[in-house]
Specification:
Largest sheet of chain A: none
Shape of chain A: globular
Number of helices of chain A: 7
CATH superfamily of the largest domain in chain B: Nucleic acid-binding proteins
Number of helices of chain B: 2
Structural class of chain A: mainly alpha
Strand content of chain A: under 5%
Strand order of the largest sheet of chain B: 1-2-3-5-4
Number of strands of chain A: 0
CATH class of the largest domain in chain B: Mainly Beta
Radius of gyration of chain A: 17 Å
Number of domains of chain B: 3
Oligomer: heterodimer
Radius of gyration of chain B: 23 Å
Order of helices and strands of chain A: HHHHHHH
Structural class of chain B: alpha+beta
Shape of chain B: elongated
Largest interface: A-B, 57 and 56 residues
CATH architecture of the largest domain in chain B: Beta Barrel
Chain lengths: 151, 149
C-alpha cells in the first residue's frame, strides 16, 4: 500500500469540485478506509494478519461501507455509500499499481478466488519519495481553487 | 430497501457475521494453506522477514511464521545497499532444503516505519474534520450533520 497521505491527496485533487466539505471528508475516509480497517490490527496483532487481510478485499469493503452507512441518518445513507465507495475505489486503483516481491497480494475476487493482479509500477515504500511533489501539487491545487472560489 | 431503517439491527448483525466469517475463512483456508503451499513449492516468496543475523554468504531472517536461511544474496541486493540486523525484507527464492533457500530477489523495506508514522497524520486530520461536520447522537446511535457545517 502507498502511504495514507498519498491516498488522501490523490482523491482530494481528483475530486469533483462541486463536492461539499462534509462530503469531501467522507470521500477521503473512503480513500483511507481499506488500510484503516486492516493495517493497525495487522501491526498490533501480527498472528491475526490473515484474518484482517480479508477486509482489504472488494467484497469485504462493500460490506464495511454498508455497515458504516448504517451509522448515518437514513436519508443520507445512499450518499455516504456512494462517497465511501468512490474513495475505496480510488484506494484499490492506486494499490493496483504497487509491486511486491513476496507478499500474497490483494485477492481481488476473494472469497471466490485468490487471483491477484497488479500492474507493479512501484514498491510499497516508493510513495514516500514522491510525497514532496504531492505536497506541492496539493498546495497549488488549494491555492487555485480558493482563488476561483473568491471570484 | 437495503439502506432503510427496517430490520436495521438484524442487517448490522448479519453484515458483522459475514465479515467475521470472511476473516475466519481467509485465516484458516488461505493463511495456513498458503503457508503450507509455499512450503511445497520449489519457489519460496516470503514477505515480512526480519534479518536477525548475516554475513557475506548467508542471512538468517524470521517472521511470525517462518525462519529462513538465505544464501547467495549479495548479488541480488540493490546497488549500494547492504543488509543490517533488524531490516524488514521480502524475498523471492528457490528452496534448497530445510529452511535454506537460494535467494534470487531481495527487497529491503527500510522506510516502512516512516510510512506508518506519516500515515497517521491524515487520519487525525480527517477525524478532526469529521468531528467538525458530524456529531454523534448516542440515543439513536447515528452520526448527524451539524447544522453549522
Amino acid at each position: 500500500m502507498p502511504d495514507l497521505i498519498t491516498h488522501s491527496v490523490l482523491v482530494y485533487t481528483l475530486r469533483n469540485r462541486s463536492v461539499k466539505s462534509e462530503e469531501l471528508v467522507l470521500l477521503i475516509i473512503g480513500a483511507i478506509l481499506p488500510d484503516l480497517v486492516t493495517r493497525p490490527f495487522m501491526i498490533i496483532f501480527p498472528p491475526a494478519k490473515y484474518f484482517f487481510h480479508a477486509f482489504h478485499t472488494p467484497v469485504a469493503l462493500i460490506l464495511i461501507i454498508l455497515l458504516i452507512s448504517y451509522l448515518f441518518e437514513e436519508c443520507y445513507r445512499a450518499k455516504v455509500m456512494k462517497l465511501l465507495s468512490l474513495g475505496v475505489a480510488s484506494h484499490l486503483f492506486l494499490d493496483l499499481f504497487q509491486y511486491s516481491v513476496g507478499s500474497r497480494g490483494y485477492s481481488w475476487f476473494f472469497p471466490f478466488s485468490y487471483f491477484d493482479f497488479r500492474i507493479g509500477l512501484f514498491m510499497p515504500e516508493d510513495s514516500l519519495y514522491i510525497l514532496p511533489l504531492l505536497m506541492i501539487i496539493l498546495g497549488i491545487d488549494s491555492y487555485v481553487y480558493q482563488n476561483k472560489k473568491k471570484k | 430497501m437495503i439502506l432503510s431503517d427496517k430490520y436495521k439491527k438484524f442487517k448490522i448483525v448479519s453484515i458483522l457475521s459475514i465479515l467475521m466469517l470472511l476473516g475466519w475463512y481467509d485465516c484458516n483456508y488461505n493463511g495456513i494453506e498458503y503457508l503450507k503451499s509455499q512450503r511445497k513449492n520449489k519457489s519460496w516468496d516470503i514477505a515480512g522477514l526480519y534479518v536477525k543475523n548475516f554475513d557475506s554468504t548467508y542471512f538468517y531472517a524470521e517472521s511470525n511464521t517462518d525462519s529462513i536461511i538465505g544464501l547467495n544474496y549479495l548479488d541480488d541486493l540493490p546497488v549500494g545497499e547492504s543488509l543490517r540486523n533488524g531490516d524488514l525484507i521480502q524475498i523471492k527464492s528457490i528452496h534448497l532444503g530445510g529452511d535454506t533457500v537460494d535467494v534470487y530477489k531481495i527487497y529491503i523495506s527500510r522506510t516502512r516505519k516512516y510510512k506508518i508514522l506519516l500515515s497517521i497524520i491524515p487520519v487525525f486530520i480527517i477525524f478532526y474534520f469529521f468531528n467538525k461536520y458530524f456529531k454523534f447522537e448516542i440515543a439513536k446511535f447515528i452520526f448527524k450533520r451539524r447544522n453549522n457545517a
